[in-house]
# Entry
Amino acid sequence: MDVYNPVINISWPMPGVFGISIVLGIIFAVLVIYLVLYFFRLKDQARIHNYQLFLFQAKRRGLSNFQIKILRNMSAYLKLANPRDLINNAALFESSLDDFTEYIKRENEDKESITDIIRDIAVIHKKIFSRGSYPKPFESMSDLEDSEVIYLTDDAGNIFPGKVAGRGSG
# Structure
C-alpha cells in the first residue's frame, strides 16, 4: 500500500507489520548490546578502582612490590572480587595461609624461594595487622605478640607458616 503526498508529489511505501517488527527488533538488539557493553565497562572500572585502592592501602602500610605481588596472587588464588578484603580481614588472610602455601609448594618452586615467600607472608601479616609502632627485631619468644604469624621450619627442612596462639610456662 502506498501513501501519496500531494505536496511533494511522491508516493511512499507503507511498512507492514513484519517491517515494523524487524526495525524495532534491530533497535532493541542494539540497545541490549549497548547495555551489556556498558555493564562490562562498569565492572571493569570497579575492578580497576578496587585494585588501585588495594595498591594504595598496601603501599601506605609499607609493603614492598614483592609483598604486594604475593598479596595479589593470594587474592587471585582465593578468587576475591576485591583484593582489599585480604588486607581488611585478618581472619580471611590467616585462613588462606595453609592453602596458599600448599599451592606454592605444588608449583615446583625451589626451597629458597618458598622460604622467601613464607617469610614475606609473615612480614606482610606483621605490617598489615599489627597495631603497634615500628616492629623491633625478633630476639626471644617474649617479643612475639599473640596471634602473630611467623614462619617455621622443621628438622626435615619443610617450611610453613604458624600463628602464635599463646605461651606455655617454659
